[in-house]
Design a protein that fits this description.
This protein is mainly alpha-helical and 279 residues long. It has a domain at 3-82. The chain contains ten helices and no strands.
């Protein structure tokens, strides 16, 4: 048997996790999910991950259960295929989740960036103005507080998503990144930009130093953005998000396997636990 044939045999009899990680490592070499999908279009159906990975896992289970009763072998093969489909769906879910959040949160970042510029420009005008300073500063402080809260929420959401993804990568992929290289780069770039934006949370007060202060009842101190505290909060929220992503991947896997009833049961349970959850 040639080395190539031995390798092909080994690759055809893998555990669900090993088959998934082999597929993922090969797919990630394309650099992006769209590039991989574009290549996949011209390949035979057997190359599709939802065909290839469960087939390898099924063959691996059959090989591992040789000489066992037929019913046990069939059950093991079915379980291996089911687990493999779930892992593929989880990888795809993590990538789609990252892409969606990068797009939406990126737009929110742009909005908050320009809002910050507008607030700072207004603060500069207030600093130079001598008329109605107290009332203007009070209004400006409220606007600034709302900006700080929105920026903190944006950054906490990004950290929560990242912590949830890392948790699932450790649990199901032995810590191997689930995202394609371009998604990792886009995510890191957005996170760095939002963190830089959040660091400007204390920039307004110096612009108004030396001005007449408004009535104490109208004074509002914007909250300081403690990046360590935001990360700590994200670590607490991450398991909830991770559980949702797992449920969505399991429901998708059951749907692929033809178990519509099982998929619907997962969605129904999530709706009972969280009425705001999306179907």
């Amino acid at each position: 048997m040639t080395a190539e044939r031995r390798l092909a045999k080994l690759e055809s009899t893998l555990s669900p996790k090993a088959a998934t990680m082999l597929w993922l490592a090969e797919a990630q070499q394309f650099g992006s999910l769209p590039a991989y999908v574009a290549w996949l279009i011209d390949q035979p159906v057997s190359a599709a991950p939802l065909e290839r990975v469960p087939a390898q896992a099924r063959a691996g289970a059959i090989e591992a259960m040789r000489r066992q009763p037929r019913e046990i072998v069939q059950e093991a093969a079915h379980g291996a295929a089911r687990d493999a489909v779930f892992l593929v769906e989880l990888v795809l879910k993590l990538n789609s989740e990252a892409e969606e959040r990068t797009t939406i949160q990126g737009l929110r970042y742009v909005g908050l960036f320009w809002e910050m510029r507008a607030i700072r420009s207004e603060a500069e005008l207030v600093r130079r103005s001598r008329s109605r300073a107290g009332r203007t500063i009070s209004s400006l402080a409220k606007h600034w507080q709302a900006w700080c809260e929105a920026t903190a929420a944006l950054l906490t959401g990004l950290h929560t998503s990242e912590e949830a993804r890392l948790l699932l990568e450790r649990r199901y992929l032995d810590g191997h990144p689930a995202l394609f290289p371009d998604a990792i780069e886009d995510w890191g770039r957005l996170q760095a930009r939002v963190e830089r934006l959040a660091s400007l949370g204390d920039a307004l007060p110096p612009l108004m130093e030396g001005r007449r202060r408004g009535p104490r009842s109208a004074e509002i101190e914007p909250p300081a953005l403690d990046l360590d505290a935001l990360r700590a909060r994200a670590q607490l929220d991450a398991p909830t998000l991770a559980a949702r992503l797992v449920d969505e991947a399991r429901a998708a896997a059951l749907d692929v396997l033809g178990d519509a009833e099982g998929a619907t049961a997962i969605v129904a349970r999530r709706m009972r636990e969280d009425p705001k959850a999306e179907a």
